[in-house]
Amino acid sequence: MVLLPSAQGSVHYYDFVLTNTNFTRLCSTKSIVTVNNSFPGPALRVQKGDTAFVNVYNQAPYGVTIHWHGIKQPRNPWSDGPEYVTQCPIPPGTNFTYEVIFSSEEGTLWWHAHSDWTRATVHGAIIILPAEGTTYPFPEPDDEKVIFFGIHAQPLQLICWVH
Q1: Which CATH fold would you assign to the domain 11-133?
Q2: Where does the record place a coiled coil (predicted)?
Q3: pTM of the complete model
């Protein structure tokens, strides 16, 4: 007897284009690696049980991998991101598609480069809402704002819910 899940989550597709970009903060311009020309990079927005396919096009001059911090990847280690542990870096001028399975996670997590210093600029939020038909453990917010704080090279993100 084979038991199949009664409901399957949605599938999402994202394209991440990594490039060197001149970026100015506090009157200082630096060449940094960005995702889709933004810093921090785009937020992934999914629900518990969803799957995301993230195609990373590496147009930067460095090899890079992406790690989905706090996301379990059972039977899917090649999409976990630690360079030279579960995958080799994505070479410049090539691409790799990650399959990210949000099986049991809820809340606000983050994704980041897992290659040397690129983790300082290649990162973004992951917003995982409760599965369809389930409720929040608190009153559902009317609005939300993503706030991303940089702490050394390891960012901390928060979601501010507004009622």
Answers
A1: Immunoglobulin-like (2.60.40)
A2: none
A3: 0.81
